């Protein structure tokens, strides 16, 4: 059978626009010829920076800059890689890229370099995703967390648990051949403490990953309250700048149904339910339907009441339509008009109740802290993982199967099956059993040249 050679791909790796330096990257097999022809006949020394002209087919100089040649397998993709660091202008970069295409490369798809790195075992799937997350990171904390995943800390934690599972599975499966020893096995192999250790490790990893998912995807907050109670004013206070429109006329928040602000680097997607009134207007109804969809996936419900009146009948009516089981915070606003500003007290009916003034800002810091805490945010300073929903789902699956295994001490065969499935769920995260279409979907969201 003929050896299947993946084709050669090329792309501009630097951001569009003008910059001091612009980079064209090429990856493929057997690129020494291409490297030689590009710079006029010299084969570059591997992994050395050469200052060279980049030539067109007539030997005319397109640009000059650094040429780097990384022969397989010691490169980002694991293939031969050439990097051309020229001047960062869109036209000159396009000319360099076109020259590479003329020499037999084709334009890379989004994420294709990283995908090749994954296929050549340079990165596992969680690390490959961290490449995209690092590029997209919008806060310092997110960038730190992404780079830790990229360096393999998250994958390492997964592999540790997988190793424990492998040991246990070998013990269980070996015992399956000797049914009369089942009872002794649980004792002598310390199967139960082993499973409990795995369960604890998974729960810890899930916690850290959930923090990371909050960091990455933010929290969904629903703001409930009658017109004029001070929702827009509170949003402004939380955002720390004049963002929403504050007016004395009820119903002006109608078009600003969703707003994203940041607290301590965490994006908060705040949906204002002011628009949730009965209406005959078709366009408005579509907006209301969308709002309800948002509400269903809320992490926190923020109920705003006027401190002078407390909860009204209209508040109770909306209350009954809100999904149960989502944590709530009751905020008494306009406390500057009645006193008692800034006190937070708890009662069984309103577990978290904060009195504040959106006008003066007093007491708002209490809400800031509570909002994150109520949603389950308690950052491990240095060791959160910037996990994706996909990772959390897989981790939850793995934990479910380990818990199920623990309840199967009476039937080793079923226990073995649960452990196998826990192992498989973890394999999904690092890409061991991940189907091609999911891989395609993950990499297609990368930018071109990465
Ligand atoms: P929304 O309709 O719920 O968004 O309410 P707004 O934020 O637009 O506020 C309605 C009115 O209440 C405005 O005149 C605000 O200045 C006023 N207001 C909002 N919060 C406070 C507060 O804490 N104290 C006082 N005294 N007035 C407030
Ligand atoms: Zn408003």
Automatic annotation (TrEMBL):
It holds the Pfam family TrmE_N. Its cofactor is K(+). PROSITE patterns: G_TRME. GO terms for molecular function: GTP binding; GTPase activity; metal ion binding. (6S)-5-formyl-5,6,7,8-tetrahydrofolate binds at residues 25, 83, 122, 450. It is found in: Cytoplasm. K(+) binds at residues 228, 247, 249, 252. Its EC number is 3.6.-.-. InterPro entries: G_TrmE, GTP-bd, GTP-bd_TrmE_N, GTPase_MnmE, MnmE_dom2, MnmE_helical, P-loop_NTPase, Small_GTP-bd. One of its GO terms (biological process) is tRNA methylation. Keywords: Cytoplasm, GTP-binding, Hydrolase, Magnesium, Metal-binding, Nucleotide-binding, Potassium, tRNA processing. GO terms for cellular component: cytosol. Binds 1 potassium ion per subunit. Mg(2+) binds at residues 232, 253. Residues 218-376 form the TrmE-type G domain. Exhibits a very high intrinsic GTPase hydrolysis rate. Involved in the addition of a carboxymethylaminomethyl (cmnm) group at the wobble position (U34) of certain tRNAs, forming tRNA-cmnm(5)s(2)U34. HAMAP family: GTPase_MnmE. Homodimer. Heterotetramer of two MnmE and two MnmG subunits. Belongs to the TRAFAC class TrmE-Era-EngA-EngB-Septin-like GTPase superfamily. TrmE GTPase family. This is tRNA modification GTPase MnmE.
